[in-house]
Amino acid sequence: MKLVVAIIRPEKLNEVLEALYRAEVRGLTISRVRGHGGEVEEVETYRGMTVKMELHDKVRLEIGVSDHFVEPTVRAILSTGATGEVGDGKIFVLPVEKVYRIRTGEEDRSAVTPVTGEDSGE
Amino acid sequence: MATINTADTAWMLTATAMVLLMTPAVGFFYGGMVRAKNTLNTMMMSYVALGFVGIAWALVGYSLAFSDGSGLVGGLRFSFLNNVALEPRGSIPHLLFAAYQGTFAVITAALISGAIVERMRFGPYLTFITLWSILVYAPIAHWVWGGGWLGKLGALDFAGGTVVHINAAAAAFVVALVLGARKDYARTAIIPQNVPFTLLGAGLAWFGWFGFNAGSALGANQSAALAFANTMFAPMATLVVWSLLDLMRTGKTTAIGAATAIVVGLVAITPAAGFVSPLSGIAIGGIAAAPSYFALLWRARTRLDDSLDVVSAHGVGGVIGALLTGVLAQRSWNGVADGALFGNPRQLVIQLAAVAATIVYSAIATLVILKAIALASTLRASAREEGIGLDVTQHGEEAYSRGEGAILVHTTGTER
To answer: Which one of A32, A76, B78, B178 counts the least CB within 10 Å of its CB?
Structure first.
């Protein structure tokens, strides 16, 4: 299993999510983060105070996937997250030692495989 | 010779301040419905009208609307507030009348902005509302209230259903078409960032609207009392009907719906406020709910990105109000004219003519102004600017900055 961590632009989130959905990647966590990847700072002014915003709003996606799902996941993010300008973000693919599904106690591969409608007994 | 009445003057001083408050209220109403990254830009679209349109009004707009001229437009006798002093106009000082009417010009321009939020560059916007207030608002105000042809024809518009709301909605429709839809429109969910702002805006607008409608009696008199009561009861009726429609359609009564209902009710009663009985006022408020409610639902399925539904709220609500004024006006209440229901069907025809003339002129003139501005500059923000948001790209500020990563630059304009 791998953990795919992607830092992307917030305005690209919906497109990326849509692409992930189409690639049948299910089960992810997002968080709002702030970071700096070398892009030009925005200058803001509040009364007499001028500031440079060194940190920009970004969204971090964390997606636990089985090995053969790494490629489609990364493809989906690359194809929709890019604007071509500095600041589009990064994708990190990390090895994962163990995965547990809390609800059932399942481990590893079966824990990262999404439950389909039939399996959940509905 | 008319003389100044101090009670009338006291009321009109108050009413003027109340109507001025409506423009910031519109800023909150609209600002709550956009995304967080466009909050300041949306609110500024209303706030700057206080400056740019207000000064344009003092310099030339007031004269074009209210000085003697032709049936189509006033003259320049009052330009730069010349010949506008403390002499009586009616029973209040002329200068107070000019200030009161100025607050109407300001809010009418601000209302248009709801159709074009989250995508217009700010410089062209400033140019647009300034020119629009002079070339569209002032002449139409002259037609109805300044001695122009619609007033002479007998069109009833107590406080500006046609001049303010239908006019703004026709312009809003055209600007939304010319600018085109937001890049995310109908592609991703665009949801309101702060619904309490919208509720606050609707509440403040209602308060200000008592100055707008009851102030249009231009005195502390019986007509003002009638307009005041109608301004209270009509939106109440709209709120009830709207809530029930919401409840029947989705099983839930929405807060944005309630805020919208209040505005629609206020819009609908505006032309009728001093002309119809209180029971007719309640009827107008109740009836007006349904067309706007369904217009909103229908519009959202079209490609027309009238983002905050200026056409559905102010256009549809305004037309319903203007026409029902022609039906329900009662001479026993207003001393001026009866409507179709009280034996004067011709009034309805006159109302229809006023509505049609306003829509046609406002739409065409708005289109011409926009095309002229587009020759000199670009109206639309770039896709990149839309993505980042107009607060940072147009104003260099954020509504909800957390200050993380903000590095103080000591001398403005120099690089470290």
So the answer is: A32
Distance, in Å, from the CA atom of A80 to the CA atom of A72, rounded to the nearest integer, reads: 12
Give the per-residue pLDDT at B226.
98
A and B: number of Cβ contacts within 8 A:
53
Residues of chain B with pLDDT under 50: 415-416
> Is B15 in contact with B214 (CB distance < 8 Å)?
yes
- Per the CB < 8 Å rule, is A34 touching B401? no
Judged against a pLDDT cut of 50, whether residue A122 lies above it is answered with no
Q: According to DSSP H, which parts of B38-93 are helical? A: 39-56, 62-66
Residue A17, domain CATH: 3.30.70.120
From CA B294, how far away is CA B248, in angstroms rounded?
Answer: 13
Chain A CB within 8 Å of residue B412 CB? yes
What's the pLDDT band for A121 if we cut at 50, 70, 90? very low
For chain A, say whether B405 makes contact (Cβ under 8 Å): yes
Number of domains present in the structure of chain B = 1
Q: Is A118 a member of any domain? A: no
Q: What is the pLDDT of residues A13-41, one digit of tens each?
A: 999 999 999 999 988 999 999 988 777 77
Q: Is residue B324 part of a domain?
A: yes
Mutation target among A52, A56, A85 for the B interface, most CBs of B within 10 A: A52
The answer to whether ipTM exceeds 0.85 is no
pLDDT of residue B410: 64
The pair of structure tokens assigned to B218 is 């231009």
Cβ contact A44–B384 (<8 Å): no
Q: Give the predicted TM-score (pTM) of the model.
A: 0.90
CA dihedral sign, ordered A47, A49, A52, A56:
negative
What are the C-alpha distances in Å from B351 to residues B57, B61, B127, B255, B346? 27, 25, 32, 33, 9
Q: For B392, which of A36, A44, A50 is closest by C-beta distance? A: A44
Domain that holds residue A42: 2-112
Kindly tell me the number of DSSP H helices and DSSP E strands found in chain A: 3, 6
Q: Which residues lie closer than 8 Å to B298 by C-beta, 6 or more apart?
A: none
Q: How far off is chain B from A118, nearest CA to CA, in Å?
A: 30
**Domain contains B402:** no
Domain of residue B298 covers 6-395
Assigned domain for B401 exists:
no
Reported as a pLDDT band with limits 50, 70 and 90, residue A77 is very high
- Helices vs. strands in chain B: H and E counts, helices first: 18, 3
List, in sequence order, the alpha helices (H) in chain A: 13-22, 70-81, 108-112
* pLDDT tens digits for range A55-67: 888 999 999 999 9
pLDDT value, residue A38:
77
